[in-house]
């Protein structure tokens, strides 16, 4: 604790002599979403890639529909509706300056979205001539490798049933694009400890995925062959990718379904493999159809050699390092087909979705009481209807879904912009405990198993330099959950006050408090429900010393209370420097952590290699330092490297099981070379 006052001095030091470009603000927004979605880090790759595609292929303001405009960061549903209404009234928009006449478009918002906009007055027609494809296509190839320097127990020669592969993790990722019409993607990944080549890997590499995609070619809106994601409605019936939940972006809880999306990530199980297409039947009416057959990891169980093998659950780690993990690789086959009919106008949309899922091996989740209503069997069909309606400053949206046993799940939301600078969100969800779906991602605390709740969010621009974001979420579970032996309830509160002293110095305060019931044993040994609470308090500042030097500081306290109270804190200083005479950027962080246990851990977003997102837990009495360097050899080749070290002062052993490290230091190295041409 003696080191704390020294670094506290850095938090309030700043200068007002530099700029805060839109890219930095976008990074802050991504971090804001990531903070509340620790388990969904793989989906951040899709967010980053969408932004890159937008920068290379700006949205045509004069011809875009609501679905295309929803891709632009910083715009909400009302700003999009206002822009479409303005365009219908006045015709072509010829200049960014004209956007100031659209309700909700202040100079700061316009500055943020300009990199993603085009003001062409003639609609670009897809031209698939070979000459144009060759001349205007873009290639992006990334090669990445990483290593933890300390030996983990699983790699020791003396360990039985240890890891079969090397301690290096590697990834090759390739993406080819012709404007926004054609794309080809490929990814190959090898996690640390996974064996390479035969007899363990038939194709040599542990995981591979790829796709070919065509967009906006006449009435053919999308065609994907290979690997893809499917998103429809509000995520109740069909949403194969993960989806973000509660975060500091308090009003951004509505799902914006994009239909079919080419898969280019490293999530090894939750995606579709086959073919998907969307066709425009006539103006504003689209029909979509898909088929997928994909092998997925699962926990297997053989009761009797004379009986068919069953599986007890799906796996999501994607790790195949040991003999037992390899046995569970591709242990089941999931086949899915279905479709969606969607009418989408500027102010009203209505969609219908049906999906059938079939398993090659029967799923039997177990006989624990909390598992009673989980899906079992080999086949499941889901149906849903979703809607969205905008009238002036009010937006109503929702979805009603059912499975083939007529078990229901529903969500309905309300958004309002009653006055300039004020946005309100209300969302109610109710999923019956019997409702089942294979791939879904509704908004909620857990999003399944009998959850019912009400969420209220607010964003208020109090003044030009003061912004308040806040939410309250009250929920209950109508059935038992893992570790909770009775129906339970909880509540979650968040408030964040952001201040904009200038373009060069910003700060925010965040308070979050959550209370949730869990099971505990009393003195007589009888289990009963008790409250478990977690709270965090954060002070964060970001400031620019010059055009080359940018800094950020954060102090965060964590509080945990169940049987006993625990506290912890984390303090870090970030520095980012861009050299003028050489194409080199350095990013560094030094953090001090003091938490009583893992219960008071604090998650912190870290800068990392392109297409890599890190949100590690900071815990124990420890310090963490990382240094990342990026160097551009030329316009086509850049190299990145990251060195990170965690030093624990309260233990002589890190992690557990086969990941155990003898000692109190953990050092990671990552390197990536990227070719763009």
| Beta-strand proportion | over 45%
* Overall outline: globular
Give the end-to-end Cα distance, rounded to a whole number of Å: 50 Å
> How big is the Rg?
25 Å
State the low-pLDDT regions, or none: 1-23
Biggest sheet: strands, sense, closure?
A: 24 strands, antiparallel, barrel
- State the helical fraction: 10-25%
Total helical elements: 8
Mean pLDDT, all residues: 88
The strand count comes to 33
Structural class: mainly beta
Keywords:
single chain, 677 residues, mainly beta, 24-stranded antiparallel β-barrel, two-stranded parallel sheet
Could you characterize what this model shows?
This protein is mostly beta strands. 11% of the residues lie in helices and 49% in strands. The strands form five sheets. The protein has a 24-stranded antiparallel barrel. A hairpin with a 6-residue loop joins strand 31 and strand 32. Residues 1-23 have low confidence and may be disordered.
